[in-house]
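Hey forum,

I'm writing up a methods section and want to include a predicted complex as supplementary material. The small molecule is copper (II) ion. I've pasted the protein sequence and the SMILES. Can someone with a working setup run it? I'll credit the forum in the acknowledgements.
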Amino acid sequence: MARMNSGRPLLFGLVRSRRFIATLLLPASFLLAAGCQEESGGDVTPDSTAPPVVPEGEVLVKDVAFNPRELRTTVGKPVTWRFNDGGLAHTVTADDASFDSGRMSTGTYQRTFSAPGTVNYHCTEHARMRGTILVS
Ligand SMILES: [Cu+2]
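Reply by user p_vandermeer:
Happy to help. Structure tokens for the complex are below, copy them as they are.
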């Protein structure tokens, strides 16, 4: 009897504590699963801070920036600027004033360079919008 009396409460205590741990772990594992789902969901939907994929020879005018900021091209190959900034108007204006797209909020502006060199351009609406075309 002495063995049972001392053994049973210990066994019950163990079972109880296991259940207790389980009740603690269950919501924790749900939280972990929720966290993982959030992460995988973030992978499916592209992060707004991640740079968008821009086709070759194209500059995306979005988020008050030229992307890529520096583009390599060759003589005679057209460069396309695609305006897609939620209706916000921008310009593609050469620093040396050799070309100017004018204010555009949709559509594209295309230009072909006839000589190798570095062409710096900017947006007349936003001082921080600057870009470079490296023509070889
Ligand atoms: Cu701009």
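Some notes you might quote in the supplement: The chain is about 30% helix and 25% strand. Residues 20-43 have pLDDT under 50 and may be disordered.
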